[in-house]
């Protein structure tokens, strides 16, 4: 995805909320967006997701996109299952496939019992789970999350963390904002800050497209023997109680994660972070 000279203002004479944003985001990127309230983070995410059009410049190369907004409009004329099927259809799925995947994600987020409940009767937490579930229906290439963890219980937040890792490991791109500074701490490929209408790389973050020097620590849980890993990566530490720990070259980490997730049965990725002193 490429942003070239992107700017946004509201009204022909309004102040620029964003101006001259140039940014390239490659596949397999986890991009965290930071900034104080009111600086334009949500505007930036809406433009990235294609929900809002820039007043200047252009965005290209998004691919299939899913978006979870900061404020989810729960008062919609659908049941929970009907809403997911509707969103699946919008994302290009056939009705039968959308219905099947809706059932799957309702169960994954523990709200299968609410499939027939009207959206305007859901609690805030349950409606937020539905908002997050719709984002995974069509396996997006670009996933944009604006405070998507807010209102979720612990299990749902953990599940969302895991699904973000899975999307990135599969070569997708995830762009997110979250008020918790420890959300996916140490796992972002890059961090951008929105301030004064500009979007800039945070000091110490890895520029998009660059490789991190050193190694990445991977923790995963599963059963049986780990799969054969690419790039000559060898499992040196024994698997204890189903927990696998690896230190892998950073430029091999995406391939290793894909191999673990593609194993049968798949391994569950618990954490991915730079090795101390490895940058």
UniProtKB/TrEMBL annotation:
One MF term in the entry's GO annotations: ATP binding
A Pfam short name: ABC_tran
UniProt KW keywords: ATP-binding, Nucleotide-binding, Transport
Domain of life: Bacteria
Residue span, ABC transporter domain: 1-221
Name of protein: ATP-binding cassette domain-containing protein
Lineage of producing organism: Bacteria, Bacillati, Actinomycetota, Actinomycetes, Kitasatosporales
